[in-house]
Each structure stands twice: as C-alpha cells, then as structure tokens.
Amino acid sequence: MRLFDRFDLTGRVAAVTTSPGGLGGGLALALALAGAHVVLVGPDAEEGEHEAAKVRAEGGQVLFVRADITDPQQVEDVLAAALERFGRLDVLVNAADASAPGAAAQLPRQEWRRVMSLNLDALWSCCQSFGRHFLAQGGGVIVNVGALCGVIAGRPHFDAAAAASKAAVHHLTRALAAEWAAQGVRVNALAPGYTVTDDCPALDPRTHRHVLEDTPMERISTVEEIAPAVVFLASDASSFITGTVLLADGGYSAG
Fold first, then answer.
1. What is the pTM assigned to this prediction?
2. Helix ranges, 19-145 (H)
3. Were 225 and a residue from 115, 170, 221, 239 both cysteine, which residue would form a disulfide, CB within 3.0 to 4.6 Å?
C-alpha cells in the first residue's frame, strides 16, 4: 500500500452530525472528497439539503437525514436510515454543537442546559448508539469535534457552558477510546481554535486583538483547514491513534 492510500476513504460510509452554520457541512464535503459516502444529519432541512448538494456537485454520494439528535430515538433512526441506504457504517463525526457566549454570572439556566443537551448529552447518545454498531461489526471510528475552549480558557470571548461541555467531550473521548480500543473501535477528538463559519460571530476589536495577538500564526482558521484533520482521524492513516485530542489552533495553546 502506498503512503497516501491510507488516507483514502473509498468504500467507507461516514455519518456527520451538524448544526446550522457550523463545521459539519465542510467536514462532510471533505470526507466525500476522500472517497466516503456521507450521511449528513441535522435539524434544518433547507440547510442540510444545501450542504448535501455541495457533496453531490463534487460527485459524492450523500444522504441527508433531518433529525434532532437530542432525542435518543431519533439517533437510532438515523443509524437505521444510514444502514438502509448504504448497507454499512464505518465512521461517526460528531460536529453538532451550540454555544452561549457571555458573562457566566448572568447565564440563564436554560441556556446552560441547551448547550449541554447538544454538546454533551446528544454527542453521548450518538457515541453510544453508533458505538454499539461498531462494536458488533468489529470496528469503526468516532471523531468528536471538541474545541480549544475545552483545553484552555480563552479571553475575552467567554463561554462557560461551551467550555465545560467541550472539556467533557475531550475526556469522554479518552474514556471511550480506552474501553473500546481492544475491540477495534478508535475514538479521537479534534479541538479547533477560532474558525470562520457561517455562524461565527463578528470579532469585536477587543476580541480580534486577543485572538490574533495570542495566536502565533496571527490569524484564524477556515473550515477547509480544519477538515483534513478529520479525514486523517477517520482514515487508516491514523490507525494507531486513539484517545487523542488533536489541537488545530494556529499555536494558540503553545503560548
């Protein structure tokens, strides 16, 4: 096998959860470009079909499933739909997330629960449901999208709920990796730094200063820069990597 053949996902099927304006669509496209058939999962039918059309435009095969993954039964329905359409499932990318930026002292309880419900509880439901399938078939890959805020507390873009949920995602990743490694299931996380997406809030001058000056590369990333890391973690190129949280932050955490 040639070196770059290990990045090839031809014949694999990858499910990607997404949120409106988030990373999921870009990650799905990258997986399709690497050869995978894609199941894109999200709550917004219009945006989901729009992102699916981008995959089809590149010659990829994609199924969009409208679902609320905070409902465990709908997660099971997504798994069933993926197997019905493609007959197999090899990769799960948990990219759906929510945030609640602002002062922690004024954060309403319902906002805390909203973030935890999607970022942690729903991700857990997906890991458990799809993980059972991977364990039964003797192998599979899970990539959880965490965040730099789950590693360090950045400033001044404060978001206590997102930070706490992403830190939990990182450690859940390690726990599942340790438990499932001997059964052929790899679980890793990607922790992006500040990334330009459709739902990325405009940087006010103070935030802009801290983000750029505290990042050695002096810029923020794009989805196109983050997506190849997911392809790497999903592919055989990372076959001896599990339980890792891969930082993609332009050097922010190194300073």
1. 0.93
2. 24-33, 45-57, 72-86, 109-116, 123-137
3. 221
